[in-house]
Amino acid sequence: RWVLSLQCKGSRNFLSALRRAVEVDFKDKDKHKSQGLYLLTTGIPDQETHTISAYVAEVCRGFDLQLHVCLFSVTKGSDSSGIIPARYANPRETAKAFKEIVQAANGRFHWFGEAGIFESDDITSITSEMEKAKNYSQKCAFLVESLKQRS
């Protein structure tokens, strides 16, 4: 709700935003079985990953909250704002940091850019299910074939 009224600024103060979301804006958190937060970002938070992960793990344990991250890798030179973040990491380091944070929050991680999807927990999960279904189908076909040969 409150995020719709915000304007883009130069801070990547993740902890401040997360605290605001879980301590102020989840007023009716006890009435819901589970809740999720989605972080849409283009870069690494200002704070250290281990600090964020510890806070996220503690907060998410308090009630059924999942933090999901959508990381968008921006092509070099496309940032016209001129804002330099307090902390810098290349795209792979950024993805690694957010994956760690998401694991602490039992959430999902999605990383994409102009070239397409680099990594997505949902797509990985779907692909895994499809592989299992294919293997099961092959076993069933083998079983049917072996039963036909016995008859």
From TrEMBL:
Top-level taxonomic group: Eukaryota
Protein name: VWA3A protein
Organism: Cnemophilus loriae (Loria's bird-of-paradise)
Lineage: Eukaryota, Metazoa, Chordata, Craniata, Vertebrata
